[in-house]
Amino acid sequence: MELLSRAILSEANDEAEQIKADARAKADAIRQRAERQAAAERDEILQRARQDAERIRKQAIATTQLKARTMQLEHRETLLKQVFKAAREQLPSVEQWAEYEDIALRLLREAITQLNAGKTHVRADENTQKLITDEKLAQISEELKVTLKIGHPLGQGLGIMVESTNGHLHYDNTLETRLSRLEGILRAPVYHILMGESL
Predict the structure, then answer these.
(1) Is 115 among the domain residues?
(2) What is the pLDDT of residues 166-183, one digit of tens each?
(3) How much is the pTM?
(4) What's the domain count of the chain?
């Protein structure tokens, strides 16, 4: 009996050791699987974090570049406004130029051509009006095949304005208006000159 009892106990101990060994093996396998899964999740989180950091970095660079470009454009706009303001302030001095009479007659011819009316009133600032003599008016009238008559002087502006005798059409060819019309075309070349660049 004692022998049988020892054999059963020994077999039970062996089975218990086997169960413990299996349990340890299963626990090790579960732990290793958990470690691999944790490492994979950690790598995935790190990868996402790197991608997020790169995206944020690129956004920050793009935002900074946009702000710099905006500041550059604002600076450019300020400079251009100053230049065109200074040009407008200098317009009255054009009347003092030796060639202003030729300029005034060119302004008149251009205005008449643009208006394209048979009978036209010519209006000019007082100084310009003195330059447009009856003789010159008759010469331009014959040259362009129109009837010209001097109208009331301009209240403001320097140069010429023409209007049809019925008052329906007019063409403003004052220096101020010409500068405003040309401003869009002149902006880029003026800015290049301001920056010291060649055209």
Answers:
(1) yes
(2) 888 999 999 999 999 999
(3) 0.65
(4) 2
